[in-house]
Amino acid sequence: MKLKLIYCFLFLFVQFSAFADAIDFKGKVVDAKTNQPLIGATVNIPDLRLSVATNINGEFAIKSIPTKGRFVVQIQYLSYKTLTQTVDFSSTDPMVFALQPSVIESHEVVITGTPITSGSRSNSTSASVVTKEQLQGSSTNLIDALARQVPGVSQITTSQAISKPVIRGLSYNRVVTLNDGVKQQGQQWGDEHGIEMDQFAAGRVEVLRGAASLQYGSDALGGVINVIDPPTPGEGNIQGEFLTNYSSNNGLSNTSVMLSGNDNGFVWRGRGTYQNAYSFNTPAGRYINSGFNQTNVSGMFGLNKAWGYSHVNFSYFKDNIGFYDAEPGDPLYNENTSRTLDYPRQDIRHYKVALNNNFLFGSSSLKLDLGFQKNQRRELEDSPTPSLFFDMNTYSLDAKYYLPESNGWHPVIGLSSSLSHSINLGEELLIPAYDEYSTGAFIYAKKVWGQNTFSAGARFDYIKNKGKAQNDEAGDPIFTGFDNKFSNVSAALGYTHIFNDVLSFKANAGSAFRAPNPAELGSNGVHEGTSRYEIGNAGLSPERSYQADATLEYGSGFVTGSFGIYENYIHNYIYASNTNKEQITVTDEESGEPRNYDVYRYGQVNANLYGFEGNLTLHPVPFIHIENTFSYTEAKNTSFDRPLPLIPAGTLHNTLRFEPKVKGIKDFYFYAGIDNYFKQNRVDATFETPTDGYTLLNAGIGATFNIGKQPLKLYVSGTNLTNKAYYDALSRLRPGRYSQEDPTYGVYNMGRNITFGVYIPFGTNK
């Protein structure tokens, strides 16, 4: 009934808004020095989800633009500084955008994942943007691709197919992942639960580092990964792409096809992606049964009109992942390259429908995102019948109303709500069936004066978790159940100052929180993915974070870079530990054999995380780029004066990239890189062992060729070219994490890997 009322409201609103006044936004993009037109420059309006390219005269036209309102417009062109400008559409005169030639990548990008869309230099949030081109390569999933490129971002891995994002040392339910404006909900509390997203479907990805609870509520203690769909093409245009690549190490083959169009404001997009890999190779052999296959189908249809836009997004994600249930003494490696997965394995299916809207009311607007997700996670031990089977349905609403600007102030009020219902359908049990309800409201304001920007906001949240009690056949309790209610007030302050065209500063301070998740509150059983017995604690309190960060950014013709520092003190930090070396014996129902498991109980401590991150790029000549990124996090359990677990080692990535002009081809490049990972001696000795430092050598080459008018991009990239044997500090298969019985028993990370790729964009333009 509620959904019917919402859809009726939307229908009436669209009918009313159909008569909204509209204009054509026209302009020209030229070289600032020569005044020559730039052909093929991209003009993008993020808040309207529209993008067009300039014609042979450097001109563009975007039809059915609202007659009122101020919108951020971004213009991009290769070898030129990206231009970000706020445009008042009340003026109908054609605009001329003059781009400055530049050998550097502009450090000014548009950020949409914060309450108000703006250029990064006037946005206090520490953020990085990863483009579609950067997501292509030798990575096995979306998080793997981000961890290779964004300072401050790492990944907790289980074999090759599962990666959990880590931002400034925080992971699991402390990092929010968004897609189609909707929080991804997939039982992300689990160690071996990855992110159910197609890395090739993203138009770009924004990584927001630092607490973001003001806008996103609970779980955004560490940051946000905002996966943004490609913008819709200009009216009358059809665009598409085909990409495929193959990796030598694991036989990983990726194929993805997309087609998108715009017919008089009716927009649509469809995509299909398939991935398949056999067991990955290490310097000691192939890790047994570590292959995976993944199928993704997604689409969008909707309207882009003068009143804004309304889009329906839908997707289906299916992932089959092999596991290996080994104990000390069992072999870890073989040379099997079969693509058939053995047992045990995971069968994951994620369905999602999202209705994304931006309704314009003159100088104010309403963004409304409605979502439904169904996550089915099956863990299969030795047959197609699931041992563990979580089935969760989530309904969500997120609304933000942008009030008219007044005296330089940009106010926003927001409301969000979600309802999750999870049940157990498997033979074994780990967490109880539960219902989780949350609602929150915030107010935010941003003021710009001169070269300064100030922002402030406050938020109230209410969360209710109810776990259902359950007994076994003998009447003994398996789950005692829980009924918890949490409320919280969060606040945030931000400030930016642009000193000149090349130097800027930003800083943030505030508080955030995270409510305990159902696994932390009510677990009682063997978690096969972690080979341990987990026991929850219904008396847990919410985590409370107090954080501050500051970043200095610089960009000139020779040097670009940034350096940031941060500190995040978390009161009542939740994690599971085996401090007392407690064990429990569980009898396998099928074999009848007993097995000992380490018992991990959820508790709370106080924690302090601090560190630094940044990047530095040198351009001695226009075609040479010396790129460097670095990050370091120190994390301490202050209650017991010892390190926190699962904290990334310090990293330093160095790349020498050449982009010479070669007649007859475009965008030619080749590079060589050295990735340095330092020792991680600060570990929680109750279930971790230190890891040594290591250095990896990488290289690649690529170019775009024109076959007639059709561009064709070819590339080859190689990672770990020396076939280095190493253990990553965040690998769950490394010694000490794989088995506590034998701290030398573990699985090496992936060895040498060469990836060959093809990318073909195509389409028609009117």
UniProtKB/TrEMBL annotation:
It is a multi-pass membrane protein. Pfam families: CarbopepD_reg_2 (PF13715), Plug (PF07715), TonB_dep_Rec_b-barrel (PF00593). InterPro entries: Beta-barrel_TonB, Beta-barrel_TonB_sf, CarboxyPept-like_regulatory, Plug_dom, Plug_dom_sf, TonB-dep_rcpt-like. The lineage of its organism: Bacteria, Pseudomonadati, Bacteroidota, Sphingobacteriia, Sphingobacteriales. This is TonB-dependent receptor. It comes from Mucilaginibacter aquariorum. Belongs to the TonB-dependent receptor family. Residues 244-721 form the TonB-dependent receptor-like beta-barrel domain. Residues 1-20 form the signal peptide. Residues 122-224 form the TonB-dependent receptor plug domain. Keywords: Cell outer membrane, Membrane, Receptor, Signal, TonB box, Transmembrane, Transmembrane beta strand, Transport.
